[in-house]
Design a protein that fits this description.
Layout lengths: L1 H25 L18 E18 L20 E17 L2 E8 L12 E11 L2 E8 L21 H8 L6 E10 L7 E8 L15 E10 L3 E12 L2 E15 L4 E13 L1 H6 L13 E17 L2 E14 L8 E13 L5 E12 L11 E11 L1
């Protein structure tokens, strides 16, 4: 009995040893059925994703007793908030290079969660298609090119913020973030006078909206001649319809860099715009609309010289001193409010492309008449801001 058990056990062990080798020889190979990204096999497919952002924190102090840190006059407040720390911007951007022709981008501003988020937070959300240097398309939510300030982000401007005219024309649908489609490109890039153009059609009711609020659209066009790093001239024009009434906007801008010394240069920007203020028109009661929207015209001009000293000392790359002067009138024909702004600024720039920045400046607003309890009131704000780009 014992010998029979040993024979059976020996035979069982031999089968265990021989079976895997036999199976490896005789069994057919099993094909891997795991799903693969077939897009990787397509020529020209990149699928590269990059992330970036900017953080701006500031301290604001009001130098006028009855004006708060937001520039609002508070005549009856027991205690006016005249100094405060705040987060101006906390932006995050994701950009996907889907192929050698397609690009998608999303930009959000997390700082806008501190208040009413309607029509806020989401800034850029678009897809771009590049055919060649002369022909490109963008669809989604973006900033249509209608002036200098649409060509670069706010974190690299030579002032504390964009101009008053930028925000006014943005609220009227010509600038800032809008939903629509754009075609743009460049010609003669290597010639003495390079050319750029941009054509856009947008809803005109600002960003982050479910749909348009009427059947009218706004069309804009920009032609830029020259090099912004030397001397350039921009011509802007737009027309459209808002609630079945025609509206228009035009503008011209000049930008350039003047070398003063090996480490000194003067960056100069100036811009003039004029157009219908249909936001003001439709905000008026019907009894006060005595003329069509074509008679409600806003206009503004600013000049922004910026002296830059390229120091390149450790992480400090430059020291800059600027002074923006701006004149803006919200309604030329009906004795509208005139706002004059003076914004001096000193900034220390660190790393490349303002990767780090410390800014100290003032925002001095003067109106032709004060309206108690509103922002239409003379104010002096002292601003210290720290910025980090990544």
């Amino acid at each position: 009995m014992h010998k029979r058990f040993l024979r059976v056990a020996t035979l069982f062990v031999c089968c265990l040893i021989v079976h895997p080798a036999f199976a490896a020889i005789s069994s057919p190979a099993i094909r891997d059925s795991t799903g693969k990204d077939s897009a990787r096999l397509l020529p020209g497919f990149i699928k590269k994703i990059s992330f970036g952002g900017v953080f701006q924190a500031r301290y604001t102090g009001s130098l006028v007793k009855e004006v708060d840190v937001n520039g609002v006059h508070q005549p009856n407040a027991e205690e006016v908030v005249r100094n405060s720390f705040s987060i101006k911007r906390a932006r995050l951007q994701a950009k996907a290079q889907v192929s050698d022709r397609f690009t998608a981008a999303v930009l959000i501003n997390l700082a806008e969660f501190s208040g009413d988020t309607k029509g806020k937070v989401l800034e850029n959300a678009y897809v771009s298609y590049r055919w060649n240097d002369a022909l490109n398309f963008t669809i989604g939510q973006f900033r249509p090119s209608f002036g200098l300030e649409d060509l670069y982000p706010v974190d690299i401007i030579q002032s504390m913020d964009f101009s008053n005219q930028y925000y006014a024309f943005g609220s009227n649908g010509w600038q800032s973030f809008q939903i629509g489609v754009s075609m743009f490109g460049a010609f003669n890039k290597d010639s003495k006078v390079p050319m750029k153009y941009a054509l856009s059609v947008v809803n005109g009711n600002n960003r982050n909206q479910v749909s348009d609020n009427d059947n009218g659209k706004l069309g804009t066009a920009r032609l830029e001649l020259g090099d912004m790093n030397k001397l350039s001239l921009g011509l802007n024009g737009g027309f459209g319809a808002v609630k079945r009434q025609s509206v228009y906007a035009v503008g011209v801008d000049v930008s350039g860099v003047i070398p003063l010394a090996p480490k000194w240069d003067l960056q100069l920007q100036s811009e003039y715009k004029q157009g219908n203020n249909h936001q003001l028109y439709y905000a008026l009661p019907d009894s006060l609309r005595k003329e069509p929207v074509s008679r409600y015209i806003m206009s503004g001009v600013y000049i922004l010289p910026n002296f830059r000293y390229k120091i390149n000392f450790h992480k400090l790359t430059s020291i800059e001193v600027s002074m923006r002067y701006e004149y803006f009138k919200e309604d030329q024909k009906h004795d509208g409010t005139v706002r004059q702004s003076y914004i001096p600024m000193v900034s220390l720039a660190f790393l490349k492309d303002y990767g780090g920045r410390i800014q100290l400046g003032m925002q001095i607003d003067q109106y032709n008449r004060d309206i108690p309890g509103t922002k239409t009131h003379n104010s002096n704000l002292l601003i210290a801001q720290v910025q980090c780009r990544f």
